[in-house]
Amino acid sequence: MTSKFRHVALVGKYQSSTSAGTATDQSRQVLQDIAVFLRAQGCEVTLEAETAAHTGLNQDFPSMDVDGLGEHCDLGIVVGGDGTMLGISRHLAKYGTPLIGINQGRLGFVTDIALDDYQQALLPMLHGEYEQESRPLMHARVVRHNETVFEALAMNDVVVNRGGTSGMVELRVEVDGQFLSNQRADGLIVATPTGSTAYTLSVGGPLMHPSIPAWLMAPIAPHTLSNRPIVLSDQTEVMMEVVSGRDISANFDMQSLASLLHGDRIYVRRSEYHVRFLHPVGWNYFATLRKKLGWNEGGY
To answer: Which fold has domain 7-130+280-293?
Structure first.
């Protein structure tokens, strides 16, 4: 039986923990093994350019930049942790490329296929047997003196926070132009349901099922005990204005950041793009939570 997916993009976690930018032998071997397996299923395999260059696999497989992968590939397979997936998913979302995650990291909420089981899991998926879900992206922009000076997409969260050695930050928060509160805290997180298992989890925010059309806004170390996380419709636009504080930055999935000045406004709204994830048949969100968070299996 031939694969449903003719042209597959392969993206890997290639940085070594001991030497940034240099692939470990293990990482290279894992990616090579997966690429050979995909070819054996009748797939044309193209590596993401940085992955190919840092692993040396550009000698054995063609490579393209991310936009090229989006234009030419009908499936993306990401090998690594959730950080690797976050980086590539934001870029491929505008092309509608479905993504499968193979976990080579630690937690892996969205890279859910165990590395040891990838062949058994991938084989039926390549032939069209899978669960599909869609995760929304955020579009965020930093406005200074009525001009947009920075913008980015985020799959997990947008975080405004203080520098490591500075005091608290004060933010004026509006929702759809309506004043909500002045937040005095170490920072403020606006997260998607996907991001509810990331930074917001560590500051006491609730977990949200990915099918819920909502944002989660959670303060970081608030200076008022009544300042609690709040769930908002994802059809709203959240605005955070910097009122006071030093060394303040805005982080988008903890990967892109911009230094902020007093008076800067950060606008967060739902993006027109979604990330498409494919999972093995039988996958469900609650099983993922139990496994990744170490919850008691119990039940029947």
So the answer is: Rossmann fold (3.40.50)
Which of 82, 112, 253, 264 is labelled catalytic?
Answer: 82
What are the b/e assignments for 13-40, b being 16+ CB within 10 Å? Answer: bbbeeeeeeebbeebbebbbebbebbee
pTM of the predicted protein model: 0.91
Tens of pLDDT along 90-105? Answer: 999 999 999 999 998 6
Active site residue 82: yes
137-272: CATH topology is: Tumour Suppressor Smad4 (2.60.200)
In this prediction, residue 20 carries a pLDDT of: 45
- The residues spanned by each domain of the chain are 7-130+280-293, 137-272
Q: Which of 143-152, 165-174, 203-212 has the lowest mean pLDDT?
A: 165-174
- For the chain, the C-alpha Rg in angstroms (whole number) is 20
State the Cα–Cα distance between residues 195 and 269, nearest whole angstrom. 15
Mean pLDDT across 245-274:
92
Paired with 149 in beta bridges are none
Rounded distance between C-alpha atoms, residue 42 and residue 45, angstroms:
9
Q: Do domains 7-130+280-293 and 137-272 have the same CATH topology?
A: no
The amino acid sitting at 22 is T
What is the Cα–Cα distance from 93 to 90, expressed in whole angstroms? 5
